[in-house]
Structures are given as C-alpha cells and as structure tokens.
Automatic annotation (TrEMBL):
This is C1q domain-containing protein. It comes from the Eukaryota. GO terms for cellular component: extracellular region. It comes from Monopterus albus. The lineage of its organism: Eukaryota, Metazoa, Chordata, Craniata, Vertebrata. Gene3D superfamilies: 2.60.120.40.
Length: 195
C-alpha cells in the first residue's frame, strides 16, 4: 500500500508541474512552485513511513525464542528405547515466532542467523543422554550416569542456521530421562542475530 501512495504522490506532483509557462507570467511560476513544495513534503513523508514499516517487519521477523519442558504435569521416566528417539517437549512456556513445534519437538529456523540452544535432562538412578541434532547431524551430547538418587546434565550450543534448518533433541539409545512437576528436563533456544 505504501508503494501505491508514493506512486500516486509522484503522479500528482508531475501533473501539477506540467502547466506550460512562457517565462513571462511570474505569478503562474510562483503558483507552480508552491504546488511542488507540498508534493515533495508528502512524498518524503510517505517514503519515511514506508521505511519505518519495512524496518518494523524486519525487526518482528527476528523475534525468535522458545522454552519448553518435557512434561506439562505429573512425573514420568521416558525410555529406554532401542534407537535414538526425538524428544517432544510439550510444556511450552514461551514460543515467540512459533518456530518450535510442540507436536514434534522440532525447531525450524525462520531466518539465516546464529541461534543459541540449551537442553537439560534429569535422571533418577540410571544413565541419561540427549543429543542436539541439527538437520541430521549430531552436535553435542549431555550425559549423566547416576547410580543412586536424582541427577541431571546440561549442554548448550550456538549454531549458524539457514532458513529452514531444523534443530531438535534426541534421547540416546538405551537411556532414561526423568521429569516431574519441577520441570528439570527442558529445551530452549533463541536467535542471537541474523546474517
């Protein structure tokens, strides 16, 4: 819409300056100049508004942050599984930009940039491990061997992602992950800056 306004203003300004002037009529020339001044001011104002609108849209596209815990409520131990299994962190407390999908546990980058991720996993008297996966590549693993009682492990990574790249957390084969109402097992991420 802003481009349409600018085009219309330019058209009005050009039409207002097309009156013929023989150079002898000073009053007509002064009148034409007075018509041009408001047109140029209007064009400038419209361009300024359009620039601000584009800057706001770019800023809003850069707002990306999410944080979720494994369980919404209750207590559970997940696993062990025979293979790496994608974890779905269902209790979403923040999902600005809707880049995290609480149905699949997958984060999808909206824009090219550097993103920071953290994941924390809890375990009760067992082994636990969870790996951060970018597309299909294993990045870093959080691991804990807890012979008795409760333990936890944490890890983080900053990654350069292209728009459309995916990031998720997989539970390691043969391990268990524990979570309860205190939300010890979490997955979070946010955009640091675009490139």
């Amino acid at each position: 819409m802003g481009i349409t306004v600018v085009c219309l203003l330019l058209l009005v300004c050009s039409v207002s300056t097309e009156h013929s002037n023989t150079g002898t009529d000073v009053e007509t020339t002064a009148q034409q100049i007075s018509y041009q001044q408001p047109c140029l001011q209007d064009v400038h104002a419209a361009l300024k508004e359009l620039t601000a609108s584009l800057a706001e849209q770019k800023y809003l596209s850069m707002l990306v942050a999410f944080s979720a815990s494994l369980l919404s409520d209750g207590e559970a131990t997940i696993g062990p599984f025979n293979g790496h299994t994608a974890l779905v962190f269902k209790n979403v407390v923040t999902n600005i930009g809707s880049a995290y999908d609480p149905n699949t546990g997958v984060f999808t980058a909206a824009v090219r940039g550097v993103y920071h991720f953290e994941w924390h996993i809890g375990v009760d008297s067992s082994n636990t491990a969870a790996v951060l996966v970018k597309n299909t590549n294993h990045i870093f693993t959080a691991y804990e061997h807890q012979t008795a009682g409760y333990g936890a492990s944490s890890q983080s990574a900053s990654l350069l992602l292209e728009a459309g790249d995916t990031v998720c957390v997989h539970q390691w084969t043969g391990t268990k992950i524990h979570d309860n109402q205190n939300h010890h097992s979490t997955f979070s991420g946010h955009l640091l800056f675009t490139l």
